[in-house]
Amino acid sequence: MNKEVIGLILLLCFAFSCQAPDSNTATMVDESWDNLLDPDLSQWDNYLSYQFEEGYDGSIPVDSLGNELSPIGTNKNDEYQVFRTIEKEGETLLYVTGEYYGCVISKASYRNYHFKLKVKWGEKKWTPRENLLKDTGILYHSIGPMGAEYWRSWMLSQEFQIMEGHMGDYWSQASSAIDIRAYPPEYIMSPVADVSQPFLPLGTGEEVDGYCMRSANYEHPVGEWNTLELICFEGKSLHIVNGEVVMVLQNSRYVEGGKESPLIEGKIQLQSEASEVYYKDILIRELDLLPEQYAQYFRS
């Protein structure tokens, strides 16, 4: 066999190897993601509550005569423009001014899914966060009426915190509770997530209140986009920040009338919380089973 023939065979083999995807590439191609962000925000409702002052104590705000004020309400955003889409460099972004507390709420409910988005901070902050860290969040398994929690802005839910230096923290909203692989709190310190630890119950009805700090800070520098992923499957969840698992949670539940019930399905809320923020590439796909790469975190 002459050199020209051998060279041709090698060239064909190289070309075929470039075209034939390995199993990992094939998996990526086969994944089916639903895009939840379009210019009309057609897959989201919105809710606006109040502008909060310093020293808010969790009660219904009142006017100068002591009369209770009503929240702005559901789908009243057109007048206030707290949530709107903008086009930038050929991409659709969800822009949140943060001026009023509230959220966009997915019209659909979800149970077992992989949710992801990209987020970056704007410049503005509003009272009562003017001297605090920028803050927003993803609220999942959201059920019941709006304004059920302390700030009277969101539904009963579990929170994937988005805060400067704290992306991936957990907060209980209203009467929710969950178990997290975490070091227990000591004195004034908060519990800290760690995949090596046993599950620690937090939230309503538990000794530890409804907050846990992420395992480590993987946030990108200011001005850069951060990729956040949320895995939910039958009451289990993972908080993932820029490819790093920062929290492992299970046994999602809520308490009503002293009785615990599973909290494993619901809508998704994206918060407006006195901080200017941008979202893009908001995607979701259903899970029929929990992939091994995620299931391993829940074994004892």
TrEMBL record:
Cited InterPro entries: AL/BT2_dom
PROSITE patterns per record: PROKAR_LIPOPROTEIN
Keywords associated with the record: Signal
Residue ranges constituting the 3-keto-alpha-glucoside-1,2-lyase/3-keto-2-hydroxy-glucal hydratase domain according to the UniProt record: 33-285
Annotated signal sequence range: 1-20
Superkingdom of the source species: Bacteria
Keyword Lipoprotein: no
Record-given protein name: DUF1080 domain-containing protein
UniProt source species: Reichenbachiella ulvae
